[in-house]
Specification:
Helices cover 23% and strands 27% of the residues. It has helices at 15-27, 92-107, 139-144, 159-162, and strands at residues 3-5, 33-36, 47-51, 55-62, 69-72, 76-81, 85-90, 128-134, 156-158.
């Protein structure tokens, strides 16, 4: 069981964030530390996961459904809330990427976290990455709705990968 910070997820979290929190808590090993919405120099990624072997991972969680998505590209998405409200939001992958690089830039200030020589001189010593999580969409929907044209599958998790209730359906 992963170490979760905070110990319980706030009631204000979305249903998808609550599902992912529970899944990470129950299915990641105890050496993993999972932060929910940590404040890092003015930013709040949805999840920050730290592993001694795998490094640092930022997850951006979205509860979008097929009917929510109006128009998508690699930078901006048109999202429909309710029957008529359409708004432009940053692509979730772009948001996750910007958050991880913001964190890495901050961590680079600690010289003990950097390589001192070689090909990686000046680079952070541990691996890091970012992903998006679509808690209400399946892989099949992502293929059908061409979401994989704007976010490659390796940068995305879907409900079938994070919801243990769906494992044997």
């Amino acid at each position: 069981m992963a170490q979760m910070i905070p110990d319980t997820i706030p009631k204000t979290a979305t249903s998808g964030e609550k599902l992912l929190y529970k899944t990470l808590k129950e299915h990641l090993p105890e050496e993993f530390i999972v932060y929910y919405e940590p404040e890092i120099k003015g930013r709040r990624p949805d999840f920050l996961i730290i592993s001694p072997i795998l490094g640092l991972l930022v997850l951006e969680v979205k509860d979008y459904t097929r009917s929510t998505l109006v128009n998508l590209n690699r930078d901006d998405w048109l999202i429909q809330y309710g029957k008529s409200e359409i708004t432009t939001v940053k692509s979730p992958l772009k948001q996750a990427r910007e958050n991880v690089f913001h964190i890495i830039d901050f961590l680079k200030k600690d010289k003990s976290l950097l390589h001192w020589d070689g090909d990686n001189k000046g680079k952070i010593k541990f691996p890091y990455g970012f992903r998006t999580v679509f808690t209400k969409m399946s892989q099949e929907e992502c293929v059908r709705d061409q979401i994989y044209h704007v976010i490659e599958p390796e940068f995305m998790l879907t409900k079938s990968e994070i919801d243990p209730q769906l494992e044997f359906d």
